[in-house]
Amino acid sequence: MPARRLSGAGRSGGMTLEQLKVFVAVARALHMTRAAETLNMTQSAVSASVAALEASCGVALFHRVGRRIELTEAGRVFVPEAEAVLARAGAAETILADLSGLRRGRLSIHASQTIANYWLGPLLHRFHKLYPDIALEVVIGNTAQVASAVRAGEADLGFVEGEVEEALLARVAVPGDRLVLVVAAHDPRAELKALTPADLIDMPFVLREPGSGTRQVFEDALRASGLDPSQLKVVLELPSNEAVVSAVAAGAGATVISDLVTASGLAMGTLKQLPLTLPARRFYALRHADRYNSRAAQALLALVREPEAAPGIAPAAPVSRPRPRARR
């Protein structure tokens, strides 16, 4: 399919939406290789796309500083404009796809790690069986990153574990999981029959990074019990569930993480669950409150809320739009 060119062609024939997509990815990563990985392109193709865009508009968008790249002033100004064009183009495609029902189209989903790796897969498989002509795109990030993607119009739907209260984001509560406290099976603490607040304060912890929904829920539970999360001895902060569980199994400390993540380690005997009761948590589907809500997004939400629902188009799921919080 030929590249779609935007009006107002420049000296080299005008820019394309694909070039804008590449530019935005590079501007966010400030790294050609990481942007190429995100886009599933070669580094040379990414570099060529950026060079073609710069030639088209006759302006340098990046400084090449040794092996690093930085946005020029023109590049910084152009980023929100390019993001807006891509969002509008995506919305137009969604509306056109809706005219054909669920016989074609694309659904962009951003999800936090626990949800994407352990919860969402079977639901997407069922959705694909029901609507095989809807292309599904899934991007994994933490709760803060997912909320940002939905807010910016990069994702039709986001799925997160943490609480997100933003006026622009509508939330749908969906079935979730339960957090558990685990240590390595060979850790001396594995034999504890009861825990005191002092035990938690003295325990070395391996946790997800700030911005993770799992960490947010754990810290909220500590505050509700009268404990200050800053008192915890956090010896490692790691960016993935798998890295956290691997470090804990090696004896680095304890962690609080989803029971979906620890199920295999507990079954194999590499992890031991400690007697700490944490509340069950809901997951949340996020969508932009003011953007068009496609039939594909509605269908996936209906499936998530009622996994055994019969095929077909369900009415839009009720959503909650949080009230803005007063600034402190």
Automatic annotation (TrEMBL):
SUPFAM superfamilies, per the entry: Periplasmic binding protein-like II, Winged helix' DNA-binding domain
User: A Gene Ontology MF term for this entry?
Assistant: DNA binding
Q: What is the name of this protein?
A: DNA-binding transcriptional LysR family regulator
Residue ranges constituting the HTH lysR-type domain according to the UniProt record: 15-72
Could you say which protein family the record assigns here?
Belongs to the LysR transcriptional regulatory family.
Spell out the Gene3D superfamilies in the cross-references: 3.40.190.290, Winged helix-like DNA-binding domain superfamily/Winged helix DNA-binding domain (1.10.10.10)
Q: Does the keyword DNA-binding apply?
A: yes
> From which domain of life does this come?
Bacteria
Q: Which organism is it from?
A: Xanthobacter flavus
Name the UniProt key words of this record, in alphabetical order.
DNA-binding, Transcription, Transcription regulation
